[in-house]
Design brief:
The chain has 403 residues and is α/β, with parallel strands linked by helices. It is 30% helix and 21% strand. The protein has an 8-stranded parallel barrel, surrounded by 8 helices. A 4-stranded antiparallel beta sheet has the order 5-6-12-11, with no helix packed on it. A two-stranded antiparallel ribbon has the order 1-2. The structure holds flavin mononucleotide (FMN).
Length: 403
């Protein structure tokens, strides 16, 4: 396809020049940093969650611990950070400064309050400062102000509806997004509570409460603050599947604009978020790990992808995968697949053989050249061998009609 690809998206009336936005976190907690991000090409930024001046925010350090697996560093990131130490009086000034220097970029503010009056004050002051949208953190894993420790507003549908309606009532001009937690039994119930409150959109979803690890020599949990720790907010690549499920459920069953966050590291992840219903995609851990510069890859990658697909606009991706996501009883049952091995690309690491022998259906034998041979009678097509094989396209599916 030739011609210009349109990367712009619109969410609740707010226009973004591309779908890539910095989420509330360390990369948005300093005005000069946000300016650098805009200069690099990010379409918008949600400033780190702020509160009224009387709120005491006392951070502890170190606040970050990574989850490594085998030789891969930071497949997930845990933090025991809190909201910003910068209160509304400072953030109002930052909003005004950013909007005057970068009028075409989206400046969002994230807020958290302990009382109705605080939530509403924050909204009024930020609107007056010129913010483009307001996101409400109902989902900080360190607990919400005014609630019992560890409880998040978005774990309770009634509270979610009530607090979101206070915020919405105070907003005259800007859309209100409610940032929810995936840590609930029924995400659709929470999504419906947000919709009933009149709020405009949902940010799905925040970090997930986790315990990052224990030092097996000292018995200290990570990140260790002088020997002790607490439950972290878990983010990064490891949580992407949970976010995808949350966005898909909300898009299918609630029908409300969604800003996706939680585990997007690459442009491909962003495409997946949009395919299940996100209108734009927020990034935090990827930027903390690899810098604002990833925006070049995000924009180039998605542009090439759309070009290859013959699509002229990124917004056409939104929701395209949803009809293919069904409940288990609706899955097709009239065919089966069996694995087939490409003998030329096999690296003879035996992983498929071992996995099938001890975790599957004993359908793989090794021949005299130590190459895997599939027993099609025994193979049920479970997918384990394809999943463990380190070589792309070495083991593939063959479709076999039943009966
Ligand atoms: C160190 C750290 C601090 C964060 N602080 C906030 C915050 O103040 N408010 C908020 O709504 N989310 C906060 N988040 C959550 C991020 O905005 C984001 O939703 C989450 O990390 C999942 O996205 P990711 O996997 O791209 O990082 C924070 C995340 C990290 C890692």
């Amino acid at each position: 396809m030739t011609g210009k690809i349109d990367l712009s998206v619109e969410l609740c009336g707010v226009k973004f020049s591309n779908p890539f936005v910095l989420s509330a976190g360390p990369p948005t907690d300093d005005v000069e940093m946000v300016k650098r991000a805009f200069e690099a090409g990010w379409a918008g930024a949600i400033l780190k969650t702020t509160s009224v001046e009387s709120e005491v925010v006392e951070l502890v350090y170190p606040m970050i611990a990574g989850l490594d697996f085998e030789d891969k560093k930071v497949i997930g990131l845990g933090n025991i950070d809190l909201i910003s130490e910068h209160h509304i009086d400072e953030v109002e000034g930052r909003v005004a400064e950013l909007k005057s220097e970068f009028p075409d970029y989206v400046v969002g503010a994230s807020i958290m309050g302990a009382r109705k009056e605080d939530w509403q004050t924050l909204v009024r002051r930020l609107e007056a400062a010129g913010v483009d949208l307001i996101e409400c953190s109902f989902s900080c894993p360190q607990g919400s102000m005014g609630e019992k420790p560890g409880a998040m507003v978005a774990q309770d549908p009634k509270l979610t509806r009530e607090v979101a309606s206070w915020v919405k009532a105070a907003a005259k001009r800007v859309p209100i997004f409610i940032k929810i937690t995936p840590q609930v039994a029924d995400i659709v119930e929470i999504g419906r509570a947000v919709k009933e409150s009149g709020a405009d959109g949902i940010t799905a979803s925040n970090t997930i409460p986790a315990l990052m690890g224990i030092d097996i020599n000292s018995f200290e949990p990570h990140p260790s603050v002088d020997g002790k720790s607490t439950y972290s907010g878990y983010s990064g690549a490891a949580i992407k599947p949970i976010t995808l499920r949350v966005i898909a459920e909300l898009a299918k069953h609630v029908g409300i604009p969604i800003s996706g966050t939680g585990g997007a590291m690459t442009w491909q992840d962003a495409v997946e978020f949009m395919l299940v219903g996100a209108g734009n995609v927020q990034f935090c851990t990827a930027v903390m790990r690899n810098g604002y510069r990833i925006i070049d890859d995000l924009k180039d990658g998605i542009t090439d992808y759309l070009q290859d697909k013959g699509m002229s606009s990124v917004s056409k991706l939104i929701g395209l995968a949803l009809p293919k996501i069904v409940m288990h009883p609706e899955l097709p049952r009239d065919y089966k697949v069996v694995a087939q091995v490409n003998r030329k690309t096999c690296v003879k690491d035996d992983l498929c053989y071992i996995a099938c022998r001890d975790g599957g259906h004993q359908a793989i034998e090794l021949d005299e050249e130590r190459l895997p041979v599939i027993d099609e009678e025994k193979c049920v097509g479970c997918g384990l061998c394809v999943t463990v094989c380190p070589v792309w396209d070495c083991i593939t599916w063959k479709r076999v009609e039943k009966g």
